What does this fold into?
Amino acid sequence: MERILGLIGGDRRQAELARLLAEDGNTVFTAGLSRWREEPDDWERAAGAPAVILPLPLCKEEGVLNCEGAALPTAELFTRFRPEQRLLAGQVRPAQRQEAEALGLTVEDYFQREEFTVANAALTAEGAVQTAMERLEKTLLQMDCLVLGFGRIGKLLSCRLHGLGAHVTVAARSSVDRAWARAYGWEALDTSALEGRLCSFSAVFNTVPAMVLDASLLCQLPRSCLLVDLASQPGIDSDAASELGIPHVWARGLPGKLTPVAAASALRDAVYYILMEG
It folds into this structure.
C-alpha cells in the first residue's frame, strides 16, 4: 500500500529509511536530512504528510529536536502538525508528550515496540564491540571486560564479547539477572557493591542510563582501561575519567552511525507494523 510519508530530523539512519520507504513505492518528503540526501529539505510537505516519522531519539538535548544543523525546539515543531496526522518518534520524553498533547497531537513511540528494540540492541552490541576494537591496543581474547547492566543490550553485548574470547563480568542490580549471567558462564557483581572489585578490568561497557561509575569508583580502574558508555544518559563520569587519564567514549546512537542501513531496515519494519495496526 503506497503511503505519503514525511521524515524530519535524525541522522544517516533516517536518511536511509527515507530511501528504503521510497524504494517500496511510498511518496517520501524529508527535512533536516540534506547532509545525507541529494534532495533539498522540504519542510512544508514533510510536516504536512499524513504520517510523519521523527528521529530516534526525538530530542538531542532537552526540548530540542534531534536534527543536524537546526536548533529547532520541539514545541515549535509540533505547531506545524495537525491532530489527524500520525506522528511517530523514538524515545519520546514526558515533556515532549505533554507539548504534543497540549496541541491535540498524539506521538507514538516506536522505540516501545519489542521487535524494534531487540533489533536495535543487537546492532548496538555489535557497534560497541567495533568501537572498542578500534580503540584498544590489544585483542579482546582473554581480556577482562565488565558490562554494566543486563538488559537487552547488556545481554547481547556479553554474548558477543564471550564469543570473541573475552572474560566477561556482568554487573546488575537484580539478583535474577546476576543468576542468569552466572548461568551463561560469566562472573556477576552487584552494581551497588563494585567497591574494590574493579582493578582487573581492561574494558568497561556501560548500558545503564544513570550514573554508575563516579570518580570514587573510576580511580580504582587501571589507567589504561577503556570506558565505552552506550547509555542515552551517561552512566560514567566523563569529567572524572578525563582527570584520571582513563580513555573513554560516549558511544550513544551507534546503529545510526555505524550500521545505518540495517538500523533503517529495522525501523522501516516497525513503522509499517504501527501504521498497519493503526
